[in-house]
Amino acid sequence: MPTPPPPPPARSPRAPRPSGRRPAESTRDRLVAAAALEFAAHGFAGANVDRIARAARVNKAMIYYHFRSKAALYREILGDMFRAVCARVRGVAESAVTPEDKIRGFIRAIAAEAQARPHFPPIWFREIAEGGSHLDDSTLGDISAIVGMLSAILREGVAAGRFEPVNPLLVHAGIVSPVLLFFASGRLRQRIEKAGIANAAHVTAEEVVGHVERVTLALLAGVVPGRPAARGAPRRRVGLPPSARQLKETRT
User: Which superfamily, per CATH, for 26-68?
Assistant: First the structure.
């Protein structure tokens, strides 16, 4: 009986043909990227939806399809930043590290998300100047949560005897303001350097973050930044009211 011929080799599955589209860069993504640059350059009032559509290479109607209005598109860009910061800060606040390291993590969370979004600092400074008039309840909730988590870190440090009591809003402002100012002022610092201020354009993000960390932690520790107390001498205060314990010791 003749031997049957061997079966033909199995064909490998054919790879799908490329569709010609880039799924990672959707119409919505392009609109957000184009709008971020437009709002950073012109503010909310000066931003033009026609320019946004041209930069995103889409019909203007797609803006209203995805976002309903220019205001909704603007709020999406603000919300993206605060959602990202909120998630990162939550991870820091819930970590099992010292209060000092949590403060460092908080500062670096702000810096990392701002650096990832060069459009955000100028947009946010304009929004502050306009009284936050375009913030929706969701974004306000994220801002409140961020400050609330910072407050919890400060309370933890006070309870451990490592921090002095300080208003969380002042600490928050002392962190956010210099970090965002640094990222918003790149071109200005180049001009300042040309005007005679040496190395104004060559300050690095790491230098700024390190400076903010040192100043913030010194403030929370109750010492004057850059001037540690002499051995055996009491720490110098930075305009902080005496604690209840100090008042009791003074009376006795």
Answer: Homeodomain-like (1.10.10.60)
Q: What is the pLDDT of residues 174-202, one digit of tens each?
A: 999 999 999 999 999 999 999 999 998 99
Q: What share of the chain is helix, strand, coil (3-state, %, to 5)?
A: 65, 0, 35
List Cα–Cα distances, 99 to 13, 161, 173, 201, 236, in angstroms. 56, 10, 18, 33, 21
- Residue spans of the domains in the chain: they are 26-68, 71-226
Pick from 194, 197, 154: nearest CA to 175 = 154
Residue with tokens 């670096």: 108
Q: Please state which CATH number belongs to domain 71-226.
A: 1.10.357.10
CB 64 within 8 A of CB 181: no
pTM for the structure as a whole: 0.76
DSSP state of 9: P
